[in-house]
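Submission sheet (multi-component)
Chains listed below:
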Amino acid sequence: MSNDKHRAPVIGGKAKADFLPPRIQELHDGRKNRHNLAISALVVTAVCGVSMLFVVGIERSSQALLSQQQTESAQILNRQNAYSDMVALTRESNNLSDAYVVASERNVNWSSFMQRIEAAVPSGGSLTNLDMISPASEDSIAAGAGATALTAVTVGATFTSPTIAGIEFFILDAQQWPGYQSSMVSQIGSTQSGYNATVQITFDVTALAPGAPQGVYGIASFH
Amino acid sequence: MKAKSLWTAGGVTVILLILASTILFGIMPTYSMIQNVDNQIKAIRSENSFRLHYLSVLRNRAKNKDHFYISVNRQRLEIPSNMQVVEFLNELDLEANAAHVKLSGVQLNLPQTFPVPASITHSAAYAAASTRVAASNHLKSSAISITAIGGLGGIRSFLSALEHGPRYVRVASVRLSSVDASNASKGQLKAEIAGQIFTYEGAH
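Outcome: structure written.
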């Protein structure tokens, strides 16, 4: 206020004076305020309306896209119907493939096992007894420390050898076979022609030859 | 409180109410509906691409129909829908003759429902297949035991023929022993083979 007193009058300025009584001024202010509030409410309502229209528009376009995808799906199914015989065969093939995979998980290639054993028998000796055992398909195998610690195949071979070294070589040979786990000589006896030995060898799951899926696979969800 | 302040408070409240009701009752439910529809679209799209892939597989199969029939027939022979005892015995006989071994005994048990065991190889293929097989309950197994007499090479050939024959035979154990003292010197061995054959009912 003190600044206003010392301020010089502005040249060309217009003198303003409000002679309305304060009651009327108050009414004016109130009307202006109400006016502003009404405009604000209208603007907010308009913004809300536009937002709603925008969101509803997006929803409509999504619905349209959904119905387009559903139509496409129905068309694909219709086209599939033309191959109904193939569908049935594919289903059968998949079922049989599943059955084979389950039935052959503990498959062992015994003939190649026998071939290895035959080859490991020392020259001059012969195989007299052989026990090769794997767990039946439906048996649970007692878990060891881990999956590979399971004994999947047990081989008990009785053979004759002209020398002790021949028996050692047999075991050394077995140690090279896939899945070899452990070996134990349960008995060595001398005979007229040399020695008779019984060796127990165990193999882990890597000695197994499980069957692979057959037929049409990779489309499992259409089972 | 002054009338002007009351009006201002009322006006602001009305504006807030308009905003809140638009968001709560208009935008949010519509947005959640959009999300829902978009999820459906995604699911149908992925299903459709899968179906299209399947359709292309079917088209290719249809082009090579004969080849596919042969392949499925091979699977049917491996695991037939019934025991097919006569065919199996005939197959054993042929394989034994080819390997120069003599079949001295064959024992076949009645098929039993195959209890799907826990996996020991932990393969993804087994995990997927075992779930479906366990659910369908169609896989049956019959215990078999075969006794054959022959030389070591012959028995190995017979075993190989069993493993690679048209019918899938899961050999669980093989026991070789000398026939007797006199025959052992001639290299004659008795092989006792135990295992299973399988049937799958209702593969279609």
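Remark: Chain A touches chain B through 92 residues (CB under 8 Å).
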